[in-house]
Amino acid sequence: MAYENRKWIIIDASEVNSINFSEVMETSANTLRYSLDGTKTFVKFEGDTPSFLEGKTEYNHSEILNILSSSEWTEELEL
């Protein structure tokens, strides 16, 4: 898959109600992935930054993969 045109933005869970789902790739609040403590989520989009996300930090594919593999987002499996 080609992710070079996609951007990801992490937002506080309290901001979910401000998401305009017609401007991002997620379809509803029910399809969002949250940090393990439930305080953060993220959206992805292509093209221009939606106005409700302006001023927030944007991440590329490799950056978001590093973030989402951290202990804040992914539980470590014990073998």
| Number of helical elements | 1
Distance between the termini: 31 Å
Oligomer: single chain
**What is the structural class?**
alpha+beta
In short:
The protein is of the alpha+beta class and 79 residues long.
Defining traits:
alpha+beta; three-stranded antiparallel β-sheet; 10% helix; 20% strand; globular
Describe this structure in words.
The structure is a single chain. With 79 residues, the chain is α+β, with helices and mostly antiparallel strands. The chain has one domain. Helix content is 10%, strand content 20%. The chain contains one helix and three strands. It has a three-stranded antiparallel beta sheet. The radius of gyration is 13 Å and the shape is globular. The protein starts with 5 loop residues before the first strand and ends in an 11-residue tail after the last helix. The mean pLDDT is 94.
